[in-house]
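Feature request, filed as a ticket because there's no other form

It would be nice if the structure record came with a short human-readable summary line next to the tokens. Right now we just get the raw output. Example of a typical job, pasted below so the devs can see what we mean:
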Amino acid sequence: MYELLPLAIGIGLAVGLLFTELFGIATGGMIVPGYVALYLNQPLDVAATLIAGFATFGVVRALSSFLIVYGRRRTALMILIGYVIGMLMRDVPGLQPFSYDVIGYIIPGLIALWMDRQGVMQTLASLTIVACIVRLVLILVVGTELLA
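Raw output as currently delivered:
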């Protein structure tokens, strides 16, 4: 019937663009709100993803105190470190006391990148608002039974 991921990403792109145009605040990456919207019923996954994003932000900030990290290099490093942290949180025994999964592979890096570019609170607030709007639109389009 419906493929939820492409639909969620498409709705997230449209709502995120509208949000950025209206308020001038990005939503943590173009595809991030769509992914997060699909996982809003799994709060541990969302929390793990945000923790991975915060950790990525911190690691890159620490590295930038003694490395030259700007522009494309910073973007690539954020995504790479986010990928590694996400993989560690998924696969290392003992780091997973609860049943959770980090959303996507590049999502933590994109969240960290926008935390770095526009600030932590602006990124988290805009991501939360847009992901909730995307989730509501998905409920209207496909119904609650497909999103459970």
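Something like this underneath would help us a lot:
The chain has a mean pLDDT of 90.
Residues 4-142 form one domain.
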